[in-house]
Design brief:
Layout (H helix, E strand, L loop, with lengths): L1 H18 L11 E5 L2 E4 L4 E4 L2 H4 L8 H11 L14 H12 L3 E5 L2 H20 L7 E5 L8 H4 L5 H4 L9 E4 L4 H10 L3 E6 L15 H11 L3 E5 L36 E4 L11 E5 L1 H4 L15 H16 L2 H20 L5 E7 L2 E6 L7 H11 L2 E2 L1 E3 L3 E4 L7 H16 L7
Parallel strand pairs: 3-13, 5-6, 5-7, 7-8, 8-9
Antiparallel strand pairs: 1-2, 2-3, 4-10, 9-10, 11-12, 12-15, 14-15
Helix pairs in contact: 3-11, 4-11, 8-9, 12-14
Length: 430
């Protein structure tokens, strides 16, 4: 029986390898079903999901309320394009702008589309409002960023594998070190043609690199002082993941909806959302801004056939309602603190793990080995064997991001799996 099961899994892996583009290096597991914090493979082996589709399934796999919204809307109307109005878009725009505290929203589908949209808005604002000469608008970005893989976005990537041999690249971007407000201040003081600063409040793909607590707040002030738009890419960090509705909320203590607490909240000029905006059920992304910025886009200048479709908007409204009504933000905050505390206890006597970092339920451990080693990969293979799915980033970093519906009991179970597995890789002490 075991050989039959293995052959089924291998057959599916072989099909992907033979007929698919080799653009990913997935962990060798073939998943067939998901519910809440759990995934099952084709052989019905059960796993804890500790990646959440890169934070797209914050609400848990196949959340019944979101799936019902999908089913109900799919039976009536799925797509009209934006050639016509539909009876769901207006409700979605009102609901979501109120939810996040902005005056307007431009709907798209994927995170990369959202970033491209924000870049276009920023450049046109720079040319038409700030008065930057045509074609000279600059956008400041950070080293080791990850904003997607379109041609424009990879043009300002630090990742050689994403960038090399895909040129010619798009100009108009200035790099600074992440978490360096002095570098930002210097660039803005010496470059009058800067229109925007595009930043991840926490760099997820870089290994959950969490900046100084005042980094975003200082960046906000610098952008204000120099008439530059602050663009927050919250595709991975937003919608409860970090223990706040948005990572730009900082270390807030909101108990229900986002209270935009004065002591911690930093308001960007443009906010980019995706992933968990639909709970991982349907591709939905959005760029939010106030009218003075958004209105630079006029009919025919930007859009999407699927952006703002009735199916996606219905799903997104329900996904956002689940976050608020089930208090998943608060759960992420509490359990994230618990997770880091427990992992830090392990690190005190560990030689294989150097540190844990993160905020809320977006965390990572740094393995005590080089970036080009396979140690982190091998650890993740053993996590898989032991019933937990995670994946390395940057060679020696393992990201941990379970669905926000995880319970304290389940989290302790996962911590046990993680620490027990790590012990297998500890060097023998003489």
């Amino acid at each position: 029986m075991e050989s039959i099961q293995q052959s089924k899994e291998q057959h599916l892996l072989n099909l992907e390898h033979r007929y698919g583009a080799h653009d990913y290096h997935p962990l060798p597991v073939v998943l067939a079903r998901g519910e809440g914090v759990f995934l099952w493979d084709v052989n019905e082996k059960k796993y804890y999901d500790f990646l959440s589709a890169y934070s797209a399934v914050n609400q848990g796999h196949c959340h019944p309320r979101i799936i019902k919204a999908l089913h109900d809307q799919s039976a009536t109307l799925t797509l009209t394009s934006r050639a016509f109005h539909n009876n769901k878009l207006g409700d979605y725009l009102e609901f979501t702008t109120d939810y996040f505290g902005f005056e307007s929203l431009l709907p798209m589908n994927t995170g990369a589309e959202g970033v491209e949209t924000a870049i276009k808005i920023t450049r046109k604002w720079g040319h038409t409002i700030k008065g930057i000469p045509e074609g000279q608008a600059q956008i400041v970005v950070c080293d080791n960023n990850f904003h997607g893989r379109t041609t424009t976005i990879i043009s300002f990537s630090s990742d050689a594998a994403s960038k090399n041999h895909f040129g010619p690249h798009t100009n108009g971007f200035i790099h600074i070190p992440y978490n360096d407000t002095q570098a930002l201040a210097d660039v803005l003081a010496n470059n009058p043609n800067v229109a925007g600063f595009l930043v991840e409040p926490i760099q997820g793909e870089a290994g959950v690199y969490t900046p100084d607590e005042d980094f975003i707040r200082k960046a906000r002030q610098l952008c204000t002082d120099h008439n530059v738009l602050l663009i927050a890419d919250e595709i991975q960090t937003g919608i409860g993941r970090t223990g706040a509705l948005l990572a730009v909320c900082g270390n807030c203590s909101c108990e229900a909806a986002c209270e935009r607490q004065e002591a911690t909240y930093t308001r960007p000029d443009l906010l980019i959302l995706g992933k968990a905006l639909s709970g991982g059920v349907y591709p939905v992304s959005a760029v939010l801004a106030d009218r003075a910025i958004m209105d630079v886009i006029q009919p025919g200048q930007h859009g999407s056939t699927f952006g703002g479709n009735p199916l996606g908007t219905s799903v997104a409204m329900e996904a956002l309602s689940v976050i608020k009504e089930e208090k998943l933000t608060q759960n992420a905050r509490r359990l994230g603190e618990l997770f880091r505390a427990e992992i830090n206890k392990y690190i005190e006597t560990s030689d294989i793990v150097k540190l844990v970092r993160g905020r809320g339920l977006l965390n990572a451990i740094v393995i005590n080995d080089t970036e080009d080693s396979d140690t982190a990969w091998n650890i993740c293979l053993r996590f898989r064997d032991n019933g937990l799915l995670a994946k390395p980033t940057h060679g020696n970093i393992i990201r941990f991001a379970p669905p926000l519906v995880i319970t304290e009991e389940q989290l302790y179970d996962c911590i046990s799996i993680i620490t027990t597995t790590l012990k297998e890789f500890e060097p023998e002490k003489e």
